[in-house]
Amino acid sequence: MAKGKLMPRRETPSSLESGSLDDLRDELLQADPEFRRLWDESAPKRAIAIALVRMRKQAGFTQSELAARAGWDKAFVSRLEGAGGPVPDTSTLVRYAAACERAVGLVFASVEEDRAHVIDAVTLGAPAAAHPFERLRGDDLALSSESLAESES
Asked: 108 φ, ψ to 5°?
């Protein structure tokens, strides 16, 4: 900007000026189709990252402690728990869950508005060689709007 020239003052502060990251995100999602496309494409990785952090915290571990248990460095755990980058492969998810002493599985379901019918489920890794996910086959699960909104944000 040239010296002495002032930017015109906006009537309403932008989301960036008001300090709300959620408002800024929503503004960008509406205004920028490329940002919307990238945001939508990254949704699965963000949801997995949130689940990993939740699992680690429920297990009572820091990133450093989990890294030591899994045989990784802390930077790798940090990348797994970040929203960017590729979705981790199943062997990485199994190893992460094992370090947290948790099970991990894959569920196939038909989903309606407020219900999911489990068609099949496979345990990828579980403590004590249990197969807890296979027991979900044929179950009908109620879906709360709370859990859906949490995974979308």
From this structure: -110, 125
Select from 77, 86, 75, 12 the least CA-distant residue to 46: 86
What would be the CATH architecture of the domain defined by 24-102? Orthogonal Bundle (1.10)
Query: Residue 107: which of 152, 139, 146, 149 has the closest Cα?
Result: 139
Residue 127's nearest CA partner among 88, 95, 152, 81 is 95
Count of CA atoms in the C-beta half-sphere (13 A) of 141 = 19
Beta bridge partners of 131: none
| Rounded-to-integer distance, Cα 20 and Cα 22, Å | 5
Report the predicted TM-score, pTM, of the whole model to 2 decimal places.
0.75
Which residue intervals of the chain bear CATH 1.10.260.40? 24-102
What are the pLDDT digits (tens) for 74-106?
999 999 999 888 999 999 999 999 999 999 999
Quote the CA–CA distance of 48 and 61 in Å, as a whole number.
18
Residue 42 structure tokens:
């990254």
CA atoms of 9 and 51, how far apart (whole Å): 42
Instruction: In whole angstroms, give the CA distance from residue 125 to residue 102.
Output: 8
